Amino acid sequence: MAVIGKAYSETKASSGDSDLFAGGAIGVFGSDQGSRAFSIKNVYVYDTVIQSIGEELILTYAGGVFGGIWYSGTFEAASCASIGCSVEANSITGDAYAAGISGQTEGSITVSSSYTINTTVRAETTSGRSYASGTVGRIKSGNVTNNYSNASLSASAKSGSAYCAGVAFID
Question: What is the 3-state secondary structure (H, E, C) of the chain?
């Protein structure tokens, strides 16, 4: 199975105007209307190719289970897994974030007791920054607890910066 998100623009986007999310089970889970606790548990993604491919100034996020999560209430992703997957985020001049469970989290989010097993995680950009991690690519706010990853990580940037982390990057 393959999940591929591509974004192209006929005109150059302004920095931060465009984000692209691709997830093995859920592209984006988000709401600014949440006032109660919400959880998603026991979501498993097997043998899937997940790609988020963006053009100029498009931030790309790819996650084995979620492309991204943001919620104004309390949210928990627990006991989720990506197994035997390929997760890839590519951007020409924007930043690229790839991770085994979620490309990004923002809000009162907890990712717990989740697993990235035998999965390849890759982030690439031509002139931005690239981040590859085992659990969460970009934590704007939230917590990551009691997770496991044996992911093969790689990040590259031809004229930018590239980073790999076993668990997550905090923004």
Answer: CEEEEEECCCCCCCCCCEEEEEECCEEEEEECCCCCCEEEECCEEECCEEEEEECCCEEEEEECCEEEEEEEEEEEEECCEEECCEEEEEECCCCEEEECCEEEEEEEEEEECCEEECCEEEEEECCCEEEEECCEEEECCCEEECCEECCEEEEEECCCEEEEECCEEEC
pLDDT digits (tens, 9 = 90+) for 77-122: 999 999 999 999 999 888 999 999 999 998 889 999 999 999 999 9
User: What is the per-residue pLDDT across 30-82, written as a single tens digit (0 to 9) for each?
Assistant: 877 767 788 999 999 999 999 999 887 788 999 999 999 988 888 899 999 99
